[in-house]
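Revision sheet: structure tokens.
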Amino acid sequence: MIKKIIFALMIVVFLAGCGASSGKDSVYLDWGHMAYSWWGYKTPVEDETLKRSQADEWWGKKVVAPGEIEE
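Predicted:
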């Protein structure tokens, strides 16, 4: 039983470290975005969720590479 608890704590610490080290290169903008993506996704998307995702810029901004023309 103790080994299972220690193993679970090690996994939690490892995942927390991975998330902390990613900085701004994270897939999710914030905890709200992650929670929505994992558990809250509904089809069709509710108006409130759509407004929040646009206001918080969950989908990021388009990145244009040097020499590339923005469409």
